[in-house]
Amino acid sequence: MQPLPVTSLLPTQIGGLGVTAGYGLAVFFLIGLFGGAHCIGMCGPLVATYVERMESDDRWSGALTLYEVRQHTLFNLGRTVSYALIGTVFGAAGALLYGTIGLAGILGPFQGAVGVLTGAAILVMGLTRLAGYRQGAVEGVIAGTGIGSVFARSYTAISTRIDRWVNGVGILGLGALHGLLPCMLLYPAFLYAFAQGSPLYGLLSLGALGIGTVPSVFLYGTVIGSVSARQRQVVHYGLGVLFIGLGYVLLAMGFMRFGVMLPLPDIPYYQPLAGSGTMA
């Protein structure tokens, strides 16, 4: 593989899709798909509460009704939309920061630094999973920081609205509030969206992740009662590998901004835009 010119390796594209867009979206979908067990472990108790309080027009014992399917579909739609919108906010924040720094004429080195730091953070998150991540440990630490009040208010908002919202279209809102809960599945994705500096990429990547989580959470709420701790641990190993891959790509591209070329695989959908200094 021939080294790519540093000038074409911009890790963001203001207002458009970031690097390796198609590849990245596929990876985010896989993270969501494989991370479904993590979602069940973190949000399963809340989902179980929704199931217990969900009324059904069909009183057949043990039968899954169309009404229940609709409610769980709305709940997961709310979650996915929430993830996508928060991803948009992170992407927009990155774009705003890059635009501001660009006025100072130091955009390239600054983007390189963001790529290196963010890639390293995602790598660490991946390594913690391979090293024996204990579900809820990191979330608990973060919840205990200054932003813990946001999580506390989210839990309160959910718990006080379950009875009012769970049996109508308001369950969309219950799902949306889950985007504000502490989640180690989302943190690396939000960081990646920020580093890309594209609201559109943030929207699509976090939307793809949310869609990937739907099968597991939907089945858990309708026909599956539990996922064993051993199964969740295996999933954490897989997520660790995926996060390490994402982090390494971002890290390598950050170093390229400083002229340090690290090996990168042939990534599908790589299309440098001639003369633009960006990658689609």
Automatic annotation (TrEMBL):
InterPro entries: UreH-like_TM_dom. Residues 28-248 form the Urease accessory protein UreH-like transmembrane domain. The keyword ATP-binding does not apply. The chain crosses the membrane at residues 20-51, 80-101, 107-127, 169-194, 200-222, 234-256. Keywords: Membrane, Transmembrane, Transmembrane helix. This is Urease accessory protein UreH-like transmembrane domain-containing protein.
